[in-house]
Recover the amino acids of this structure.
């Protein structure tokens, strides 16, 4: 995918999150700004990985909203291949994101972020909703 498009979308997500957080101190987050997905594990630790080794993991989630949720695309490091539930996930139903991490191009341990752009729109701002999950690895020498 075009890096400029990804960077533009990421900038929009940062602006949205900054806008949503501004003025929200000590207040409950409005329902429309709460996460739509509840991950079984939002952070997966892959442990020690040798350079050139591949590891697989699965992020499983539940739609905790009152609307269908659909993943439009996922922005993640080039070291990660992914596949995800492609149909809309109805309220209360489960979905998953499967990843394959390839450590071939990595030179140090890291925490990788998956930015998950949903087709769902936050009603007060009109921005698409972005969810996140993460994985870590420790690169062995």
């Amino acid at each position: 995918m075009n890096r400029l498009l990804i960077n533009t979308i990421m900038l929009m997500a940062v602006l949205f999150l900054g806008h949503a957080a501004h003025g929200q101190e000590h207040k409950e987050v409005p329902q429309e700004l709460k996460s739509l997905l509840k991950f079984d594990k939002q952070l997966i630790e892959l442990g020690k990985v040798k350079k050139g080794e591949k590891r697989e993991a699965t992020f499983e989630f539940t739609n905790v909203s009152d609307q269908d949720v659909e993943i439009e695309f996922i922005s993640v490091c080039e070291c990660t291949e992914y596949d995800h539930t492609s149909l809309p996930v109805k309220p209360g139903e489960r979905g998953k994101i499967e990843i394959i991490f390839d450590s071939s191009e990595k030179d140090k341990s890291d925490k990788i972020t998956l930015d998950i752009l949903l087709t769902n729109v936050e009603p007060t701002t009109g921005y698409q909703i972005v969810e996140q999950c993460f994985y870590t690895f420790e690169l062995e020498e």
Remarks:
- DSSP finds one helix and eight strands in the chain.
- Residues 2 and 83 are 19 Å apart (CA to CA).
- The two ends are 32 Å apart (CA to CA).
- The longest helix spans residues 3-21.
